[in-house]
Design goal:
The complex is a heterodimer of chains A (394) and B (377). With 394 residues, chain A is of the alpha+beta class. Chain A has three domains: 86 residues, Butyryl-Coa Dehydrogenase, subunit A, domain 1 (Orthogonal Bundle), CATH 1.10.540; 116 residues, Beta Barrel (Butyryl-CoA Dehydrogenase, subunit A, domain 2), CATH 2.40.110.10; 140 residues, Butyryl-CoA Dehydrogenase, subunit A, domain 3. Chain A has twelve helices and ten strands. In chain A, strands 1-4-5-8 form a four-stranded mixed beta sheet. A four-stranded antiparallel beta sheet of chain A has the order 2-3-7-6, with no helix packed on it. A two-stranded antiparallel ribbon of chain A has the order 9-10. In chain A, α1 packs parallel to α3. Chain A starts with 6 loop residues before the first helix and ends in a 7-residue tail after the last helix. The two termini of chain B are 34 Å apart. Chain B has 377 residues and is of the alpha+beta class. Chain B folds into three domains: 113 residues, Butyryl-Coa Dehydrogenase, subunit A, domain 1 (Orthogonal Bundle), CATH 1.10.540.10; 107 residues, Beta Barrel (Butyryl-CoA Dehydrogenase, subunit A, domain 2); 144 residues, Butyryl-CoA Dehydrogenase, subunit A, domain 3, CATH 1.20.140.10. Chain B is globular, with a radius of gyration of 21 Å. The chains are: A alpha+beta (394), B alpha+beta (377). Chains A and B meet through α7, α8, α9 and α12 of A and α7, β10, α8, α9 and α11 of B.
């Protein structure tokens, strides 16, 4: 066991932190975490600015092979994610950089790689994910939106939903039924498409607080070149599974929470209640300490997942456990922080809101991590079925 | 970064697992719980031959010279199997001797510990049952070349068979509770010492030890007079990590046994592990195990590197305490009535989860340390 960073890694880590710290100073006032980039034009511009800055340094292609202008290794990705998480900096497209690029590197044809990877590395093209449908959520393989092959094209008809940032994205990747008569898991294809293609209608869905980070996307005879696929035709399910395994350490989210805890500790030290700092309240001390312990455990497991990924020994079980753990820690943190803030825990960003109102926002935003990317209940199934070998539901 | 065990650690792990499976079956564990001694001198002797008591003692003092991280690997296996006896008490007692002992004390004590000839325990807690210095009232008063110790210690592990007691005493009433604490190396046969085994949940032979006018020579002071508390803190920190290591092994057994049982126990014409109510609980137990494991490995590494880790050690202890209790509780619950029987192995672990929680500081004690270390005023 060795958790030490090499001297080179220490230098790179410092650079990641320095750059992110600088970018933090340019945050627009409305920027309150990653999801706000999809809700506010200023925040989206800030996202694009950060992407360009990172692209200049080659950091959007960390861990890619040199032949695709990659730089650094998987450990650099982890250290970079830490820094971004700690300072809460966007600019790394979760869909393009974190999900699609590693999938393309493993499963796409040379032509697709050459066409789509460079714009991702340059921070020019932003992506969205087109997976869930109204009647295909956790049971994604029961999807019904079709992409029927006609000559050199697929013609797509149907509806996708819960597509985060689809209204901002340039391109989308999704799975569509290409062989309606085929058997489940062998009847769909992983397709890349331009979101400006005629026939696509994007409708933002208001989240429970009224903002709209995600959308529903309608397809009405949308024509897509048949060459824009990843993996084999009708075998998109394998690509979905491959993609779902990437970037699941959660280290970025965990570092965001660690920073959040630091800010909350400062708040408790400076804020007086009953004539003494909140920090003196034994109950608050105990609850914050409990949370800090959980955060350290989450970080330790994230390193475990990262360590496995670095060696291409991805453990589905550990990745699922990590996702369950850090996302539910986020729920508990939001509940705890809004408790500590008392009546101010309900106030949205305004002159009355402590800590910019970030905790009122977190009180509902935590659902994004527990519900998306496979609900935590699905993650528990993965551990039970694939990890512990318990009988699975058919 | 590489979180895998080294080759040496893999060998140590396998050796420990094979040894404990053969030498310490659950029949022996139960027998020892009922016995007066609480440990098997035969197994102890064989462990000494394997070098376990001297694992972290440098070679120059007759030990193996392994790292703290290696010790964690061994202790995890011990927790997995359960090994009643004074191993952890002795190893924990070795830390202060290694750090604060004089050359003479080291040369006298360490080789004997390494050979299994000297069982050590630490007398820390008293009537108040707190792990901070305010609980230390047992007095040591100078008299000529000796100190005279008077008072009663509680929860002293395996004191009834220990040869050597590290006694934490108050030698001066200082400005703060931490000032005026002195550690003494006390031969347990010294006149004036008496003991009684306390009946405890894990039958782990915690003792009340009474000191009545016990003469201890000045040269048996461990560390500096009146300045012993930092040694206690170090011992609590390392002991806490050691206990965590033992606990993650125990947690692993609870998870493995419960998963296995849920695959074989059939109700409603299917294994109970086919029900999602059971599956999701098992997934949570596994997740808790995995988070605990890597948290403990991380802390063990930091400690091994000699870097400051008071915060991380307390985080680990506070976290693992709760996981062990919870996972072993669910192990009983998912087994159903069968695991409430004394004949079942799971309760051996469940009972020990409470003992592990208390040893070297319970959850609230360590959370308070964490609260301070994260910067709460």
């Amino acid at each position: 066991m060795d958790l030490a960073l090499t001297d080179e890694q220490k230098v790179r880590k410092q650079e990641f932190y320095d750059v992110c710290k600088e970018l933090e100073k340019r945050k627009p006032p409305n920027f309150l975490g990653f999801e706000t980039i999809y809700e506010d034009d200023k925040c989206w511009e800030y996202n694009l600015h950060c992407a360009k800055e990172f692209a200049k340094k080659g950091w959007l292609a960390l861990g890619w092979p040199p032949e695709y202008d990659g730089k650094g290794d998987m450990m650099d990705r982890v250290l970079f994610a830490e820094a971004r998480g700690y300072y809460g900096i966007p600019g790394v497209d979760i869909f393009g950089v974190q999900m699609l690029a590693p999938t393309l590197l493993q499963a796409a044809s040379e032509e697709i790689k050459r066409k789509f990877l460079p714009p991702i590395a340059r921070g020019e093209v932003m992506w969205c994910e087109l997976w869930s449908e109204p009647n295909a959520g956790s049971d994604l393989a029961s999807l019904s939106t079709t992409a029927i092959r006609k000559g050199d094209e697929y013609v797509i008809n149907g509806q996708k939903t819960w597509n985060t940032g689809a209204h901002k994205a340039d391109w989308g990747f999704g799975v569509f039924k290409t062989d309606p008569a085929g058997r489940k898991h062998h009847n769909m294809t992983f397709i890349l498409l331009d979101m400006k293609t005629p026939g696509i209608t994007i409708r933002p869905i208001p989240y429970l607080d009224g903002h709209a980070p995600y959308c529903e996307v309608y397809f009405d005879d949308v024509h897509v070149p048949a060459k824009n696929i990843v993996g084999q035709e009708h075998e998109g399910w394998a690509v979905v599974n491959l993609l779902a395994g990437f970037e699941r350490s959660g280290i970025s989210e965990i570092m965001t929470m660690i920073r959040g805890l630091e800010d909350l500790v400062e708040f408790c030290n400076e804020t007086k209640r009953h004539g003494q700092p909140l920090a003196k309240d034994p109950l608050i001390r105990n609850r914050l300490a409990e949370l800090a312990c959980g955060l350290e455990a989450a970080r330790a497991l994230a390193y475990r997942v990262a360590d496995l990924q670095n060696r291409n020994e991805m453990s589905l079980m550990d990745a699922s456990a990590g996702k369950i753990f850090f996302s539910e820690l986020g729920e508990r943190f939001a509940f705890l922080a809004t408790d500590i803030l008392g009546p101010y825990g309900q106030v949205k960003t305004s002159r009355w809101a402590p800590l910019d109102g970030v905790w009122e926002r977190m009180f509902h935003e935590h659902f994004i991590t527990t519900v998306s990317m496979g609900t935590n209940e699905i993650q528990r199934n993965i551990i039970a079925w694939y990890g512990l070998g318990l009988p699975r539901i058919r | 970064m590489d979180l895998r065990f080294t080759e040496t650690q893999e060998i140590l792990k396998k050796m420990a697992r094979d040894f404990l499976t053969t030498e310490c079956p659950k029949t022996l564990v139960r027998k020892l719980e009922q016995s007066t001694e609480g440990y098997s001198p035969e197994v102890w002797k064989k462990m000494a031959e394997l070098g376990w008591m001297g694992l972290i003692i440098p070679e120059e003092y007759g030990g193996m010279g392994y790292s703290f991280q290696d010790l964690v690997v061994l202790l995890e296996e011990i927790g997995r199997n359960i090994l009643p006896g004074p191993l952890i008490a002795t190893i924990t007692g070795t830390f202060p001797i290694l750090q604060a002992g004089t050359e003479e004390q080291k040369k006298t004590l360490l080789p004997k510990i390494a050979q299994g000839e000297l069982i050590v325990t630490t007398a820390l807690l008293e009537a108040e049952g707190v792990f901070d210095a305010s609980g230390i009232a047992v007095k040591a008063t100078p008299k000529g070349n000796d100190f005279i110790i008077n008072g009663t210690k509680l929860f002293v592990e395996m004191a009834h068979i220990a040869n050597c007691i590290l006694c934490v005493t108050r030698t001066k009433d200082g400005t703060s509770p931490e000032k005026g604490i002195t550690l003494f190396i006390v031969d347990s046969k010294t006149p004036g010492i008496s003991w009684e085994v306390m009946p405890t949940i894990a039958a782990d032979k915690l003792c009340e030890v009474r000191f009545k006018d016990v003469n201890v020579p000045k040269k048996n002071i461990l560390g500096k007079i009146d300045e012993g508390w930092p040694i206690v803190e170090m011992m609590l920190r390392k002991g806490a990590i050691a206990k965590c290591a033992e606990s993650i092994g125990a947690i692993e057994t609870c998870v493995e046994m419960t998963v296995a049982y849920s695959k074989e126990r059939v109700q409603y014409e299917r294994p109970i592990g086919a029900f999602q109510a059971v599956q999701h609980k098992l997934a949570d137990m596994w997740t808790a195990m995995e988070t605990s494991r890597y948290l403990v490995y991380e802390v063990a590494w930091v400690e091994s590197e000699g870097l400051p880790c008071a915060k991380e050690a307390s985080m680990a202890k506070a976290y693992v305490n709760e996981v062990y209790k919870d996972v072993s509780k669910w192990a009983v619950r998912l087994h159903g009535a069968i695991a409430t029987s004394a004949d079942h192995d799971i309760p051996l672990y469940y009972r020990r989860s409470k003992a592990a929680d208390i040893a070297f500081g319970n959850t609230d004690f360590h959370r308070e340390i964490v609260a301070q270390k994260i910067g709460l005023v």
